[in-house]
Amino acid sequence: MNFLSKLNYLLSKRDKKVLVVLLLFSMIISIIETIGIGVIMPFIAVASDFSKIQSNKYLHFIYKFFHFPSYLDFVVAFGIGLIVFYILRAILNLFYFYALNRFAQGRYHLLAYKLFENYMGMDYQGFIKKNSSQMTKNIINEANNLVQLISAVLFMASEIFVLILIYSMLLYVNWKMTLLLSIFLITNIVLLKLFVSSKIKKAGIQREKFQQSFYKIINGSFGNFKIIKLKSKDKEILKQFNDASYGFAKANIKNQTLSQFPRLFLEMIGFSLVAIIVVYLVLKYHTDIKGALPILMVFVVGLYRLMPSVNRIFTSYNQILFYNQSLHIVHNELIYEPENLGDEKIFFNKQIILKNINFNYINKKPVLKNINFTIKKGEKIGFIGKSGSGKSTLIDIIIGLYKPFIGEIMIDNIPLNEKNIKNWRKKIGYIPQNIYLKDGNIAENVSLSENIDKKRVKEVLKQANILNFLETHHEGIWSEIGENGVKLSGGQKQRIAIARALYNDPELLVLDEATSALDSETEKKIMEEIYKIGADKTLIIVAHRTSTLNGCDKIIELQNGKIINT
After folding, report:
1. Average pLDDT score over residue span 306-322
2. Does residue 358 sit in helix, strand or coil?
3. Are 445 and 482 in contact (CB under 8 A)?
4. Which domains does the chain show, CATH number per domain?
5. For 505-517, what is the mean pLDDT?
6. Distance of CA 59 to the CA centre of its chain
């Protein structure tokens, strides 16, 4: 898919309509810009020779129509009219650039939201294949860089209109001089493209590569801060960060420096060319150039306006090259279809049946093979097995995060599918081994919602046997816990996770090796509380130690993806 196709895919119908309006607006601006340059010549002509008012039929018509008392009054009025025109021109240009930037920057919100929505809508199996630092970079940086690219496209389009109209006017005034100017400028632009644009494109690729490393190092370092401190790896990490940060900065330095080069180069060439023309005319006619002054002024003013347009077109083109990677990245991230799940209700009153469940992450490497068993409503089921035996994968299938390759799950004889799986997930309370708590207070972490039911939060914290501790030693449910619960012990984090799992009053409570990181005494206490809390619920508990499963009605052992003992 090419550049325009990808850009077309990312823009909505409304975006495209706004783009058309902006392009039409840019054409109007271009016409005004051309008029602004074109009226300079007659004004200078009549100001230097009043008799031209009489000889020029258009100027003479205006002079007679408004009944000016004298040529002097006409020239003064002409000058005041030009001042008003240029003020209005500036205001209109300012409004146009505001509309242009508003549209371009408004896309950042939509692109960032689309990316975040897409990531949140991914199926679990697809999500775990992603790198969190890469996704963060895409939302924060690549979406913003793509906005810069869109802005560059818009600026380029508007300046092309200006360029065409001014160029047409210069051709009309003196086509020979314009042609000479054009050949000279085009030659230099081709040279700039060959020697500057290729370097900027390469810098854009380097920018994306180093920025990705940048995010990975930051995320990994903050996430493993304690381990890095213990192993005294500070200098090694700092060196990695220095290399990524310096590489990123170097790519931006190269881009920003080379982006200025075309303007300086073209201005140098353009105004040198005007000086060469003046010298040529003086030498040719051996006199002053008063007769050629009006035409020369048009070329000077035209060139003065043309140079920025050529430079902006070239700069925009280079920005498109520099941020081209962002377009590919955002496009590729948004072509994935999110989960399309229905809201059909499913009821769990009798049993969960797993029929011939087979699953694999990679083709021909099965993780689960021919799994068949039944979980009755209210049963306490334990799963044991060595690491890699398939316990956690089986749990993810039961709770509806993974879809089996072969086989099906029946809830009260109703197949679990895309139509009812969302409703099934709502019936589940899940406590993982690795608990993540966001930087906030207890209530926010338990409810995972902006609409906090304070009474319910207290109820579940009391059930998890931690409310009294929080109210005695901290600020109750409003206690701040730091990033990932850094202010809490392992057992306290586990109790918060239990409270979170209970908040929506689940019918099925799942513990996926939730207590494996705790000491035996803390684990024993928490498991006693779990069995007490789950007395009226169906419990599924995954563990390494059989002692953890003493309260279970049935224990299922897995080995190499198969059930070997029940």
Report:
1. 77
2. strand
3. no
4. 3-334 (1.20.1560.10), 351-565 (3.40.50.300)
5. 83
6. 56
The model's pTM:
0.69
Measured distance CA(156)–CA(50) in Å, rounded: 41
- Residues 368 and 491: their CA atoms lie apart, in Å, by 32
Residue whose C-alpha is closest to residue 173's, from 266, 275, 306 = 306
Residue 533 near residue 498 (C-beta atoms within 8 A)? yes
How is residue 313 written in tokens? 């077109």
Which band of pLDDT confidence, cut at 50, 70 and 90, is reported for residue 350?
very high
Phi, psi (deg, nearest 5) at residue 341: -105, 140
- Strands (DSSP E) found in 344-481: 351-362, 365-376, 380-384, 406-411, 414-415, 428-431
Torsion angle of alpha carbons 290, 292, 298, 302, nearest 10°? -110
Cβ atoms 395, 383 nearer than 8 A: yes
- The C-alpha atoms of residue 534 and residue 379 are separated, in whole angstroms, by 10
Alpha-helix residue ranges (DSSP H) falling in 288-381? 293-322, 324-334
Amino acid at site 459: E
For 291, which DSSP code? G
pLDDT digits (tens, 9 = 90+) for 557-566: 888 889 887 6
Query: What SS3 state is found at 346?
Result: coil
Nearest CA to 318 among 168, 167, 243, 207? 207
Task: Indicate whether 320 pLDDT > 60.
Answer: yes
- Which residue's entry shows tokens 């966001």? 438
Three-state SS at 366: strand
Helices 175-192, 234-285: axis angle to 10 degrees equals 160
Reported residue count of the chain is 566
3-state secondary structure 525-553: HHHHHHHHHHHHCEEEEECCCHHHHCCCC
- Spatial CA neighbour of 45 closest among 297, 242, 241: 297
Residue 305: name the closest of 270, 259, 275 by CA.
Answer: 270
Residue position matching structure tokens 């338990």: 446
Reduced to 3 states (helix: H, G, I; strand: E, B; else coil), residue 349 is coil
For the segment 174-186, the average pLDDT, to the nearest whole number, is 71
Tell me the C-alpha distance between 49 and 72, whole Å: 11
- For the stretch 397-425, pLDDT in tens is 999 888 888 999 999 989 999 899 889 98
Read out DSSP for 37-79?
Answer: HHTHHHHHHHHH-TTHHHHSHHHHHHHHHTT-SSHHHHHHHHH
- Choose between 130 and 416: higher pLDDT: 416
Contact criterion met (CB below 8 Å) for 270 and 182: no
**In angstroms, rounded to a whole number, what is the distance separating the alpha carbons of residues 262 and 196?**
8
Task: Print burial letters for 183-210: b (CB count within 10 Å at least 16), e (below 16).
Answer: eebeebbeebeeebbebbbebbebbbeb
Q: What's the Cα-to-Cα distance from 524 to each of 220, 313, 461, 536, rounded to whole Å?
A: 33, 70, 18, 20
- The stretch 77-95 carries a mean pLDDT of 86
Token digits of residue 525: 């206490």
Assign 243 to helix, strand or coil.
Answer: helix
Cα 261 to Cα 191, 315, 505, 538, 566: the distances in Å are 12, 9, 65, 70, 75
Question: Which is it for the CA torsion 467, 472, 476, 478, positive or negative?
Answer: negative
